[in-house]
Specification:
Scaffold protein FimL second domain-containing protein, single chain, Four Helix Bundle (Hemerythrin (Met), subunit A), 554 residues, HPT_dom_sf
């Protein structure tokens, strides 16, 4: 319980009255830009709010009030449209501050982290540096871990590992396949950590790998600040690989990475190591809780579309049942009128939520149903089939809305071509299933190799791995991914020849190289087995690893 929350009740009435006065003055100034006295009155109210919040010890709310005051003072008399963004940010900041204090009064728990997004919005319109997510987080950075080995001088391998990191980073920045990208980034940093040995050169790799592990395990949100954070890590990697001594990772960067580890409460091995060394304790909130609370303060959240999709699915279910009854001749006498009304209502709703093509598909069927009403009888079989195609197409579009993934939404169809679009979507989904099975086969192989190592070379763990990988290879050939299939087949051959049939275990560097190859291939599959123009050649990285195993890869 916050001491500031206890003190809030003492000044609540005056504080909220002052905030209301500031909001009213700001609204009047927006309408009367030449009346500088209105803006000055708002600034005075904001200064009073800041002073009150500072006295009762609410640092997050006080910082927001200070930013609001600074933003208001930066606006000149007679400000034109060029200041609309700044005025909007101030209005939004006042709204969030009021909601934050109301929640604080109700729940008696202070979470200043909730205010960082709106504070940064105000700082951004003023071209000021943004606050890190870890601004209110404290941790000692002088802890060190035990030495884990000597530095291995292998510039070519280190270069390839940094390329692996950059491949994943590019997809994280573009949000193409971000969590798959973070997995390959994690793999690259973990390998670099082992290459460089413990100490200043590798400390950043170790902590950043733990942060990525936590991000993936907890499925944390892909905030712009986090993308910038891991882009900064890449810039530091260049310095690390060029440095021989005297390198120290920037403390703000380490602090931000450690905040992610603590926020996600990671249970992975790397996260546990970092938490132990830096004495990190679990925070009283997590990423999803902060997002939910912020959305409650700022207005409707991302869950709105999911709620809309649930209502749409209920309407679609009624529509499908009615079409089924009509087709079987078991409907009531007014079934055609009901169908016409339901389709019209659903088409309008689909247009409102952005599913225009689905709405158009239903709209195109309304004249057909109207003819059924006038004729008081069902039309031809072709007309009924076309209506069913439109309903199925609409159902697939609504399903994509519920997933909240616009990139995975079926291609929009013109009225009359819904059947082709639906079939293409079904084929795309079948392709996704096949790729998921292939990725699962690779993951199974990696787990089997881990068990093989932990058991000091018990070959029973590898018995099914070559056959499993060859099955993956066949699936990729079916999809036209011959190059990826060939690389997976070579990995299967290496496991069979050098791990199952050979009397001795391969060396640790060779096993790590095999893991690099499988990780790159797994990343390729998780990304849909596609290689976009301008992206790094992931299969090229896998091929380099396979060639390093002594296999003849193209």
């Amino acid at each position: 319980m916050s001491s500031g929350a206890n003190s809030l009740s003492m000044v609540r009435d005056v504080l909220f009255a002052t905030m209301e006065q500031a909001e009213q003055n700001l609204e009047h100034f927006i309408a009367e830009r030449d009346n500088s006295s209105l803006l000055q009155s708002s600034v005075e109210c904001l200064q009073q709010i800041y002073g009150s919040l500072k006295i009762i010890d609410l640092p997050g709310a006080a910082l927001l009030a200070q930013e609001l005051c600074q933003a208001a003072m930066d606006i000149p008399e007679g400000a034109g449209n060029e200041r609309d963004g700044q005025l909007s940010a101030i209005s939004n900041g006042l709204f969030v501050l009021r909601r934050y204090l109301e929640n604080l009064e109700t729940n008696r728990v202070e979470l200043p982290e909730l205010l960082i997004p709106v504070i940064n919005e105000l700082r951004q319109v003023r071209s000021e540096p943004l606050l890190d997510e870890s601004f209110f987080f404290s941790v000692r950075l002088d802890h060190t871990r035990a030495t884990q080995g000597a530095v291995q001088d292998n510039p070519e391998l280190q270069k390839r590992l940094r390329q692996m990191y950059q491949v994943g980073l590019l997809d994280l920045l573009r949000e193409n396949k971000p969590y798959a990208g973070m997995k390959i980034m994690l793999r690259a940093l973990h390998r670099l950590d082992g290459q460089l040995g413990a100490g200043p050169l590798t400390r950043l790799c170790w902590v950043a790998a733990a942060a990525l592990e936590t991000m993936v395990d907890a499925h944390m949100l892909l905030r712009p600040s986090r993308k910038r954070l891991f882009a900064r890590v890449d810039r530091e990697l260049r310095q690390i690989l060029q440095a021989t001594a005297g390198y120290e990772a920037p403390k703000p960067l380490l602090k931000e990475l450690l905040y992610l580890v603590s926020l996600g409460d990671g249970k992975g091995s790397l996260a546990q190591q970092v938490r132990t060394v830096f004495n990190l304790t679990a925070l009283p909130f997590n990423d999803q809780y902060l997002e939910e609370q912020y959305q409650q303060m700022a207005g409707p959240g991302h869950s709105v579309m999911r709620s809309v999709s649930v209502a749409l699915r209920e309407e679609l279910s009624s529509l499908k049942d009615l079409v089924d009854l009509i087709e079987r001749g078991a409907a009531q006498s007014d079934a055609f009128a009901q169908l016409h009304a339901l389709m019209g209502r659903l088409a309008k709703t689909l247009g409102v939520v952005g599913l225009t093509s689905a709405g158009n598909a239903l709209d195109a069927q309304l004249p057909v149903v109207k003819n059924w009403i006038d004729a008081e009888q069902l039309g031809s079989r072709d007309e009924l089939n076309n209506l069913a195609d439109a309903v199925l197409y609409t159902e697939s579009m609504v399903a994509s809305l519920e997933r909240g993934e616009r990139k995975l939404r079926p291609s929009e169809a013109q009225p009359g071509s819904e059947a082709e679009s639906f079939a293409a979507n079904q084929l795309a989904e079948a392709r996704i299933v096949l790729l998921d099975e292939a990725a699962s086969g690779l993951a199974l192989a990696k787990r089997a190799i881990t068990a093989y190592l932990e058991s000091n070379g018990d070959k029973m763990h590898l018995a099914n791995v070559p056959a499993s990988l060859q099955a993956v290879r066949g699936g990729l050939w079916f999809l036209g991914q011959e190059r990826a299939g060939e690389l997976i087949g070579l990995c299967a051959d290496y496991i069979l020849q050098q791990m199952i049939e050979s009397p001795a275990m391969p060396s640790e560097p060779m096993l790590e190289t095999l893991a690099d190859a499988l990780t790159s291939l797994e990343y390729f599959l998780e990304g849909g087995a596609t290689q976009s123009a301008g992206q790094p050649d992931v299969l090229g990285l896998a091929g380099e690893s396979v060639r390093a195993l002594g296999m003849n890869a193209a």
